[in-house]
Amino acid sequence: MNPSHMTFSKRTNWHRQPNKLSRLIDSLRKNGKSIIDLTISNPTECGIGYPEEEILSAISNPSVFHYEPDPRGLLSARELVCEFYKKKNIVVDPSNIFLTASTSEAYSIIFKLLCNVGENILVPKPSYPLFDYLAQLNDVELNYYCVRYDHEWQVDIDSIKTAINKDTKAIVLINPHNPTGMYLRQNDYRGIVALAKENNLSLIVDEVFIDYAFESEEGRTASTAGESEVLTFTLNGISKMMGLPQMKLGWIIVNGQKPIINEALERLDIICDTFLSVNTPVQVALPKLFDAGKIIQQNILTRIRSNYSTLITQTLNSSCSALTAQGGWYGIVRVPRIKSEEEWALQLLETKGVYLFPGYFFDFEDDGYLIVSLLTESFAFQKAVSEIVDYVSTV
Ligand SMILES: Cc1ncc(COP(=O)(O)O)c(C=O)c1O
Question: What are the extents of the domains in the chain?
C-alpha cells in the first residue's frame, strides 16, 4: 500500500493532477503567449478602481493594538453590519451576528453546527466547486437539487423534494446563484421555507452577490437576514460585497424561533471561540471600509453590467448564445454540442488565446456551456467575446 495512505486522512486523499486545461494554460504562459483571462474571479487583479487612500487610512488605526476576543466579533463591527441591513429596511440584532474570516469559513462552521458524520446538506447543481471540499472537510454528504434554464434560470422545487431524505439537515440557497446569476423568486423561496418547516431543516442563504443585480425587478427575494420562520443562516461578507477578498471578513446572521435560536447561538459561541479567526484590524477598519466599499462596489457594478451587455449584443445572431442572467460576476455562453465543453475550452485557448472554464467545472448537467467572468477588463472582454463568436461560427 502507498505509505501516504496510512499517514494521511482519507478525507484529504484528493485527486490533484492538473487537468488538460490547466496544463495548456501553464505551457502557453511559459511560452509568453498573450491570453485574455475570462476565468478571473479576483476583483483586485482586473483593473477595477480602488480608493486606495481611504483603504489605507481605514487600516491605519491605533485600536488595532488592543485585543478583545469575542466569539461573535467586536460589537462595534457587528453594529455596523446591522446598519448595513437597516438601510435595506431589515432589523438585525447584533447578538445574532457572528463575524467570520470569510463566507467559506462560515459554511464550514454551520456544517459543523448542524451535521453529524454522514448527514447531508442540499446544494444547487450547477454550482461553484467549493462545496465538495467544504463537505469533505466536515464529513458531510452533499445531495443536489437542480437549477434549470428555460429562457431564464429557475429553481426546480420538485428536485428539492426528491433530494430530501431522513439524513438531510439543511438547504443551501445562493441568492443570486453562482454561476447562473439567478435571483431567487419570492414564490420559490416561500415554497422552500414550507418544505424546510415540514422536514425540520435549516436554511443557509448565501447572499454574497446580492448587491450585483444587472437591473432591478419585482418578485425577487430580498435578503433573508430578518427571516425567522425556520432556523436561517444568512451569509455575506466584504470579499464580494466590497471587492475586498484580501481583508478576510464575512458574517453569519442567525434567525429562527426560540428556543432553537438560543441553542444555535450558544453552540456557535463555542465553535467560534475555539478559533477566534477574525483579525482585529479589519474589524476596526470596518466603518471606513464600508464607505470605500460603496465606491468599489459601484466600479464593479459598472464593469459587470457593461460586460454583460457586450456579451448579449455580441452573441446575438451568432452560432452561440448568452444565457439570460440577472446579476453576479459570471456570464454563460451556450455553444453547439458538436464538441465537448473541454474541447471548446482547449481550442479557444490554443487558437484564440481566450481562457475560460467549461460548464462541467461547475457541475452543469448537460454539455455545451462555457463560463465567462464579467470582471475582465472591458476592452479585453469585447475582444474575447468576438473571438469566441468568430471561432464558433467557423468550425
Ligand atoms: C456564491 C459564493 N459564496 C461564497 C464564496 C466565498 O466567498 P469568501 O471569499 O467570502 O469566502 C464564493 C466565492 O467565489 C461564492 O461564489
Answer: 18-49+294-394, 52-291
